[in-house]
Design a protein that fits this description.
mainly alpha; 16 helices; 0% strand; 67% helix
Length: 288
C-alpha cells in the first residue's frame, strides 16, 4: 500500500529533476550539435531545441508555451530556423547532446550504475499519471519515444516531469495576474530566481521593460520601494507555488510517498554530481 506524498514533498522532488534536465541547455555539446545543423545563433538554437517536439511552430505558439520571452525576440528566429533544420533533426541533435553531456558530467560508472537505472524507472513510473490537457509542452514531449539507455530514459522522464509542472506553473502565474516580466521580476525578488542580467540577455527584454514591470508590482503592493517582496508579495509568490503543487501532484501521488522520497534522494545525488562537474554557469544565478 502506498501513501500520497505531501505537495511539499512533490515540489522537493521536482526541483532536482528540473535542474538535471536543464544541464543540456548549457552544454557545449548542444551548441556544437546545433551549429553542425547550421544553427549558430544561441537564441535560435534554444527556441528550436525546446519547441521542436511541437513541430515547426511559429513565434506565437512559442510565446504562449514559454510565457516569459519577448515575442519580438522569438519572431526574429521562428519560423525561419525550420528552413535550416527540421524539428526531427533538432530532436536528434538534442538527444545526442544529452548522451555526451551526461556521460561527461556523470562519468561512465554512474551512467552504468544500478542507481541511475532505478531513478529512471521511478521517474518514468511517475510520468504514467501525467496528463496532456492544457499542457502543450508536456503533451508534445509525451509523444516522443522513451530512450532505451537508462541515463537517457532518466533525462527524458525528467523532461516530461519538468514540462508537466512548468505548464501548470504558467496557469498559476496567469491566475495570479502576473504577466511574463512581472513573473520574472517577482521571482527574482524572492531570492530564488535567476540573475536579472541573464534574464535580460536571454529573454529579449530591456532594462526599461524590467523597471516598468517593477513599477507595476509596486503599485500592486507586491514590491516595496527597494524592490524587495512585501509581505503580500511573498504570500502571492507562495500561493503561485502552492497552486502549481496542487496541479502537479498526480505523478508524485502515483509514485507514492516512499517512491518520491527515494527518487528525491537519487535525483539530488545526480544533480550534485553534474553541478560539481561544472554543468551550470555562474552567470545564471544571483540577483544582479
Amino acid at each position: 500500500m502506498t501513501t500520497t506524498p505531501a505537495p511539499s514533498a512533490a515540489r522537493r522532488c521536482a526541483q532536482p529533476l528540473n535542474l538535471f534536465h536543464s544541464t543540456v541547455f548549457f552544454s557545449p555539446d548542444l551548441r556544437a550539435g546545433m551549429a553542425a545543423l547550421g544553427v549558430d545563433d544561441e537564441h535560435a538554437a534554444y527556441f528550436a531545441v525546446r519547441s521542436a517536439a511541437m513541430g515547426a511552430v511559429g513565434p506565437g505558439v512559442v510565446a504562449g508555451a514559454f510565457y516569459n520571452f519577448n515575442h519580438a525576440l522569438i519572431a526574429r528566429h521562428l519560423p525561419a530556423v525550420w528552413d535550416i533544420a527540421s524539428p526531427a533533426d533538432v530532436l536528434a541533435a538534442r538527444l545526442r547532446a544529452a548522451d555526451t553531456t551526461l556521460r561527461r558530467l556523470l562519468g561512465d560508472a554512474v551512467v552504468a550504475s544500478a542507481e541511475l537505472a532505478e531513478a529512471a524507472r521511478l521517474a518514468l513510473r511517475a510520468t504514467e499519471a501525467c496528463t496532456r490537457h492544457a499542457r502543450p509542452l508536456y503533451a508534445a514531449h509525451a509523444d516522443l519515444p522513451v530512450p532505451e539507455e537508462p541515463h537517457l530514459a532518466y533525462w527524458h522522464a525528467a523532461t516530461l516531469l519538468r514540462e508537466h509542472r512548468g505548464d501548470a506553473h504558467l496557469a498559476a502565474l496567469l491566475d495570479a495576474g502576473l504577466d511574463p516580466l512581472e513573473a520574472l521580476v517577482s521571482h527574482s525578488a524572492s531570492g530564488a530566481g535567476v540573475s536579472r542580467r541573464w534574464v535580460l540577455a536571454t529573454r529579449g527584454w530591456e532594462q526599461a521593460d524590467w523597471d516598468a514591470a517593477a513599477d507595476r508590482l509596486r503599485e500592486r503592493g507586491v514590491l516595496d520601494a527597494q524592490g524587495e517582496l512585501t509581505e503580500a508579495g511573498a504570500a502571492l509568490r507562495e500561493e503561485v507555488e502552492d497552486r502549481t503543487d496542487r496541479m502537479d501532484l498526480a505523478p508524485y501521488a502515483h509514485l507514492g510517498a516512499e517512491g518520491v522520497e527515494r527518487l528525491t534522494l537519487l535525483a539530488r545525488g545526480f544533480l550534485k554530481a553534474v553541478a560539481e562537474a561544472g554543468a551550470f554557469p555562474a552567470r545564471v544565478t544571483g540577483r544582479g
